[in-house]
Amino acid sequence: MPSRRRSLSWAAGCALLVLLWQTATVHYNYGGNWSALFCTGDLAPVPPSLSGEQIYRFPGSNGWDGQFYHYIAHDPLLRDGLAQYIDAPRLRYRRILIPATAFLLAAGRAEYIDAAYKTAVLLFFLLGAYCLSRLAVLNGRSAAWGMVFFFTPAAVVSTDRMAVDVSLAALVLAFVLLTRTHRFDGTLYAVLALAALTRDTGILLAGAYCMWLLTEKRYRHALLAATAGIPALLWYAYVVQRTDPYPQNGRLWVPFTGLLDRFVHPAYYPFDPALNLLLQGLDFLAAAGVLAAILVALFSLRRQRMAPSGFAIVLFVTLALLLWRPGDWLEAFDYGRILSPLLILLALDSFESLEWITLAPICMVIPRFGMQMSSQVTGVIKGVLGLG
Predict the structure, then answer these.
(1) Among 59, 117, 197, 355, fewest CB within 10 Å belongs to which?
(2) Mean pLDDT of 49-55
(3) What distance in Å separates the CA atoms of residue 240 and residue 233, rounded to the nearest whole number?
């Protein structure tokens, strides 16, 4: 119990750190307008029903994913017509967990949904940091490791742009923590079911656990675990009935194409040559981090093969190889958050194996995320020092 309280304290500290950072950046960089965290662009229309929110809009921008999940939280059952303001409603609505949590926390009251959405994100920070802290303690490390959750790629994106990825990162950690005992109970079942509702890739956790149960010849439990995906499948069916198919680009599917393209065709940034070169270098490092994750995973599977987390690594490595849509590989903020479960699972291996090479992939990806936040950090520092 004392160790659990310590872990909970550090987890609360992590959530508080997120809130403090958001408060600072909103105050000094966005004039106190909290809606800036949803990253809404001014090139896309805003639903008239939300005009009263005075949404902060980034000039000359199409915005980012957070703006769409914000709209979904206001219309989770596709009844109020907000889907027409979402770029790919069939894709976005499948990732319902955080928007639905926000809607429930606000009891459906529109005026409270934005605050409830931010609260939902903080709750998943609390969960992720707590599970990481518990895993650290169980492996003889300090409970303070829970604070490191703040720096994972999925967490950084969710802090900055209200993305839903922090929920899957937290549930991956909960999955690892709960499967340590090899006991299949209601809590683990709930984690598997909720993970499938965070984003499409979350269903890989249920797949990994079923694969492990089959190798253990626990066939009845494997069948039961497979049913954890049913709520997500039912929700997907509901969404399909009420949305149009999202457009396809017609490209042929070729494994490994996306990652290779990041190396061959680096992004160009409209800054001075030195800064552009720095950003491209960090892009290259992040892409190399994903490649390193794949290679490290292949070498570590011999030790992981009998653990549920080992099967999860296999499935997320497969995902990394098969990601090919251009939108998935535009920048590190995209593929870094999508593949955060793989980076986290590998990093956790360092707790048990003491082979710090498994930390290398996530450490190679994080600098690009830090650079993305640098302008906001500068704005906060200037504001605190009165230099703005």
Answers:
(1) 59
(2) 92
(3) 10
Q: What is the 3-state secondary structure (H, E, C) of 319-360?
A: HHHHCCCHHHHCCHHHHHHHCHHHHHHHHHHHHHHCCHHHHH
- Phi, psi values for residue 41, rounded to 5°: -90, 155
**Average pLDDT over the chain, rounded to an integer:** 91
Q: How far apart are CA 257 and CA 329, in angstroms?
A: 10
Could you tell me which of 28, 50, 49 has the C-alpha nearest to residue 40? 50
What Cα–Cα distance (Å) separates residue 167 from each residue in 164, 173, 233?
Answer: 6, 10, 19
Please choose, from the candidates 286, 285, 349, 337, the residue with its C-alpha nearest in 3D space to the C-alpha of residue 312: 349
Among candidate residues 357, 252, 353, the one with its CA nearest the CA of residue 296: 357
Give me the sign of the Cα torsion angle 38, 42, 46, 52: positive
225 near 184, Cβ under 8 Å?
yes
The radius of gyration computed from the CA coordinates of the chain, to the nearest angstrom, equals 21
Q: Using alpha carbons, select from 124, 313, 90 the residue that is nearest to residue 204.
A: 313
pLDDT in tens, 267-302: 888 888 899 899 999 999 999 999 999 999 888 776
Phi and psi at residue 161, to the nearest 5°: -130, 15
pLDDT in the model for residue 176:
96
Residue 203 CA to residue 312 CA, distance in Å, equals 10
CB atoms within 10 A of CB 90: 16
